[in-house]
Write a structure and sequence with these properties.
This protein has 421 residues and is an alpha+beta fold. The protein has 3 domains: 216 residues, P-loop containing nucleotide triphosphate hydrolases (Rossmann fold); 84 residues, Elongation Factor Tu (Ef-tu), domain 3 (Beta Barrel); 103 residues, Translation factors (Elongation Factor Tu (Ef-tu), domain 3, Beta Barrel). 19% of the residues lie in helices and 36% in strands. Helix 5 packs across helix 6. The longest helix has 22 residues.
Length: 421
């Protein structure tokens, strides 16, 4: 089991996302004393008659004053079992791009539903974004059970509503996330860190217990074909090792082993892995998300932006691609727009050659459009100045993803996912 889990929270406004994460941090003893004192002071200033744990994640001044989350707030905590990175994402529709940012690297999505309200349009939207981004695990957190008398029938009804949504997402996106439903009450702490005696009818784990147990090794791509984007070429030119030449980077997916045959893209030259070096010494194998320096049997012309891939299962090297793009800029995206496209460690010039449709993530419908505006998600055709070694995003969330940048400023304009060919 991986010792790090990244998860993103989402849900409708006022479902209690920030309160839940605050309770998770507090009950797992991951809050420093000065942080707690600051939250207690702010709670008193706001007139709250309790310590508002939501303020632990609502870090921006504007968020604290308005009582809403308007940006992605990242928090880090650990238990004896594993470490966690939490992305508390906004619930408002105008911050769709923030949800995409927070969920893009998540192993698990935590979708909150107010037990009193059931599944709403925002619930559908956030579940759809999680499916679109291929987040492999999803927790349906039915919150505020204390306000419905901890009634198991209310919980069962919400689970049934969400099951219908999940089936729609499977049909639309072909995504099959593992869904776990947990009844909870974040404000008093029921089923957040400790199992609640008030819901004895629920036999499953508390939230933290589930987060500690969920396995994500397969999701990290260790079973997929090897992909190694080269980040830096190491040639120390020292007297001790004058002939040393290594290629530093992080394994994007699959497993690299000494002796494996690989192809260097885009050149297409073949060779074998002669060695895998780390700060702690040599390895026989390196897996997804592991940083290593690769030595090759032959001296090839390989530089930053190139990719070493499994010789028996190379990705397509393409200059034209279809992709689903979340647009994050105020100025709209239109056919003919020129951008920079950053894919793993490679950045190339690109032009938008066409826009096919805009996706409505709430209804899962689509409509033809001439432009994508801020927070829109749509299917786009792109042509790049030089070939890129890409996989479909449905197959590989690392080599199937890219970002679009402004040519002049380098500002991020959009995030893209390569569609299956």
């Amino acid at each position: 089991m991986s010792d790090l889990l990244r998860f993103a929270t989402a849900g409708s406004v006022d479902d209690g996302k920030s309160t839940l994460i605050g309770r998770l941090l507090y009950d797992s003893k991951s809050v420093f004393q000065d942080q707690l004192e600051s939250v207690e002071r702010t709670s008193a200033d706001r007139g709250d008659d309790y310590t508002n744990l939501a303020l632990l994640t609502d870090g921006l001044r504007a968020e604290r004053e308005q009582g809403i989350t308007i940006d992605v707030a990242y928090r880090y905590f650990s238990t004896p079992v594993r470490s966690f990175i939490v992305a508390d994402t906004p619930g408002h529709v105008q911050y769709t791009r923030n949800m995409v940012t927070g969920a893009s690297t998540a192993d698990l999505a935590l979708v909150l539903v107010d037990a009193r309200k059931g599944v709403l349009e925002q619930t559908r939207r956030h579940a759809a974004l999680s499916a679109l981004l291929r987040v492999p695990h999803l927790v349906l957190a039915v919150n505020k059970m204390d306000l419905v008398g901890y009634d198991d029938e209310v919980f069962d009804d919400v689970v049934t509503q969400f099951a219908a949504v999940a089936e729609e997402l499977r049909s639309r996106f072909g995504a099959h996330p593992e869904v776990t439903a947990i009844p909870m009450a974040a404000l008093p702490g029921d089923n957040v860190v400790h199992r609640s005696e008030r819901m004895s009818w629920y036999q499953g784990p508390a939230l933290l217990e589930h987060l500690e147990q969920v396995s994500v090794e397969r999701d990290h791509g260790e079973q997929r074909p090897a992909r190694f984007p080269v980040q830096y070429v190491i040639r120390p030119m020292s007297t001790e090792r004058p002939d040393y030449r290594g290629y530093a980077g992080t394994v994007a997916s699959g497993t690299l082993r000494v002796g494996d045959e690989v192809v260097a893209l885009p050149s297409g030259r073949r060779t074998t892995v002669a060695g895998l070096d780390t700060f702690d010494g040599p390895l026989e194998a390196a897996v997804a998300r592991q940083a290593v320096t690769v030595r090759l049997a032959e001296e090839l012309d390989v530089s930053r932006g190139d990719m070493l891939v499994a010789a028996d299962a190379p990705p397509a090297a393409v200059s034209q691609l279809q992709a689903t793009v979340c647009w994050m800029a105020d100025a709209p995206l239109r056919a003919g727009s020129k951008v920079l496209l950053k894919h793993t460690t490679r950045t190339v010039k690109a032009m938008v050659t066409g826009l096919a449709e805009r996706l409505d993530v709430a209804t899962l419908g689509s409509e033809p459009v001439d432009e994508l505006r801020l927070n829109d998600i749509g299917r786009v055709s792109l042509r790049t100045a030089s070939p890129l070694a890409v996989d479909a995003y449905a197959d590989d969330r690392t080599t199937g993803a890219f970002i679009l940048l402004d040519e002049a400023t380098g500002t991020t304009l959009g995030a893209g996912m390569v569609d299956a060919s």
